[in-house]
Write a structure and sequence with these properties.
This protein is an alpha+beta fold and about 325 residues long. The protein is built from 4 helices and 22 strands. About 15% of the residues lie in helices and about 30% in strands. A hairpin with a 2-residue loop joins strand 20 and strand 21. The chain is globular.
Length: about 325
């Protein structure tokens, strides 16, 4: 009989001297123990995440790609983009942890404790998308906790110099009918929308974003209208009375409009904001903290079609 490569004659083992039997027995026990230890080590060894190469290839081959971050870098390192430049996003306000799950690289960045990622305006380059008829698309693969308003990514600053809003992707902007929905924000002036205290110019998906589930969220802007998508699907919303608008100057009965699509022919201003992921600057400091994981973020310098966005879901 063979045990782990060692041939043992059981007939001889039965009649062998006691000392010899003892040595053989100990040897067999050691071999069995070594085998069990090797198996245990194999089980406990971490399995590296699998890159979703087909999805990454689809994003990279889509016309108009400016940047794609897959968040594979460990905490402590800047997050590098694929696209027209590497656009390194620096950890700001603390470390941004890396998790071993995500729909692109198999990794994701975790947010919600105050830390975020940023790129100074002077280094935004092709990310500084603006113009009267300029289009933009922001796509993200997120796992949102379901808590509070969350800024995903873009060039958006609500306080400095009266506001440097430009374009940005949010989850849940409840003040103007966007609770728990995908919201795409665009601004021409960078300021609040007169006569309202905040910017009202954003689309909001008809569908709500599920909590604690990986989804693809996106918005597009073609110079005329903003559209919000969930998992590659656009659903139109009928005209509705917008919350917190009744009694405002010029709107005694409130403002009625559609939120998806949201009509906005003004264009995108060149307003000087940094590019941030996971938070924006408010009067009270960095806020609108996204809570959850972001596994991918892509920016395009045109409005993608519904067909193109469907391809990028998975």
């Amino acid at each position: 009989m063979r045990f782990f490569g060692l041939t043992v004659d059981l007939n001889r083992l039965v009649t062998c001297p006691v000392n010899t039997c003892f040595v053989v027995s100990i040897t067999l026990l050691l071999l069995v123990g070594k085998s069990n230890l090797t198996q245990a080590q194999a089980v406990s060894k971490p399995v590296p995440p699998v890159v979703n190469q087909p999805l990454v290839s689809k994003v990279k081959s889509t016309k108009g790609l400016v940047a794609l971050w897959d968040f594979k870098e460990p905490s402590g390192q800047s997050r590098q983009a694929i696209g027209t430049a590497d656009f390194p996003l620096a950890e700001t306000g603390g470390p941004v942890p890396r998790y071993s799950e995500g729909p692109l690289s198999g990794y994701s960045a975790g947010f919600g404790k105050g830390a975020y990622l940023s790129l100074p305006n002077a280094r935004t380059g092709a990310l500084n998308i603006h113009g009267a008829k300029q289009g933009v698309t922001v796509v993200a693969w997120v796992n949102w906790s379901g808590e509070r308003t969350g800024f995903v990514g873009g060039m958006w600053n609500e306080y400095q110099d009266g506001g440097k809003r430009q374009y940005g992707l949010f989850v849940s902007l409840p003040y103007y009918n966007g609770k728990d929905q995908v919201c795409g924000h665009v601004s021409k002036t960078g300021k609040p929308t007169p006569p309202f205290p905040y910017s009202i110019d954003y689309s909001a998906s008809k569908q709500t974003v599920p909590a604690n589930e990986w989804v693809c969220i996106a918005f597009t802007y073609d110079g005329k209208a903003i559209k919000s998508y969930l998992n590659g699907v656009f659903e139109a919303r009928p005209a509705e009375l917008i919350d917190h608008t009744r009694g405002m100057a010029g709107y005694p009965n409130g403002l009625t409009q559609t939120k998806n699509p949201y009509y906005f022919p003004d264009g995108i201003g060149n307003n000087g904001s940094d590019f941030t992921v996971g938070a924006v600057l408010l009067k009270s400091g960095m806020g609108n903290l996204f809570t959850g994981k972001i596994g991918g973020l892509a920016v395009f310098d045109r409005a993608l079609s519904a067909t193109e966005l469907t391809r990028l879901v998975r």
